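Q: What does the predicted 3D structure of Winged helix-turn-helix transcriptional regulator look like?
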Amino acid sequence: MPLSDKTQFSTLLTEAGIAPETAEAVMDIDWVIQQWRRRAMKRELGQRALQDLGIGLDLAQFDVLAVIVGPVAEAGREADEVMVSTVAERLSIDPSRASRLVSEMVDQGYARRAVSQADARRTIIELTERGQTVVDAVRAYKFLIMGDFLGQWSQAELDAFIPMLKRFSTWIDGIGPSTEKHAEEIAALSARLASAKSDELA
């Protein structure tokens, strides 16, 4: 029988020892994440920020500037040194592509190469004042829009949501034990796939 609706998926999860209320939440959260992922992949807010602020960069170029400066830091905290390899790692892109993007930002005056204070043999990448201004402006734009939305929430809602969001963001870290726990159910799903493939080839 195909798993074609919520009831059948809920039955599968319940038989695996997952409470019906949790099963319902899993399916609702999955749907929300799918919608969120589609919009995040389009980078709607980032595109809008660059457009509204009149910044002549594409998102890939802006991403380079953002990872050079790193996350928003506490006042007085010294930023880590960044090399081309750091950019590649933070953006999960090929080092050659990272090198090309960094060179573009240097050529356009948003970044500069400098000598590491820790190791004079090492070349690091820093933002120029122009590059820092761009990153600050885009972040401020984003925070204003998000702040306006969250400003409609109560303090109690914010106090509950933020810790839960942080906790939820780590759920994939526990996939190993979960796949072991549900090895039997996963094997059954695999067998169902194999059977469907056999039917198509018959």
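A (community wiki): The structure tokens above were generated from the sequence. The beta strands are 111-115, 123-127. The chain has ten helices and two strands.
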